[in-house]
Amino acid sequence: MIYGEHIHETIAESTAPLIGGTGVRVTTIMDLLGQGRSVTEVLAEHPALSRGDMITALNFAAATADRVG
Known about the structure:
InterPro entries: DUF433 (IPR007367), Homeodomain-like_sf (IPR009057), WH-like_DNA-bd_sf (IPR036388). The protein has about 70 residues and is an alpha+beta fold. The chain has a single domain, classed as Orthogonal Bundle (Arc Repressor Mutant, subunit A). About 50% of the residues lie in helices and about 15% in strands. The protein is built from 3 helices and 4 strands. Strand 3 and strand 4 form a beta hairpin. Helix 1 crosses helix 3.
């Protein structure tokens, strides 16, 4: 599955959606933001991510939450 051409599902270890080309899971981003880290802090911890990747992850999480709820 590709979402916005940035998020890919991986089958190797799990089906957790990843930000393409970074190896960073969408859930990792959501967890860090949920812990109170700022976007700037998350980007500093994961330099492979861009602000656009962060927005894509947020949009993906929102769309997924709508399907679950």
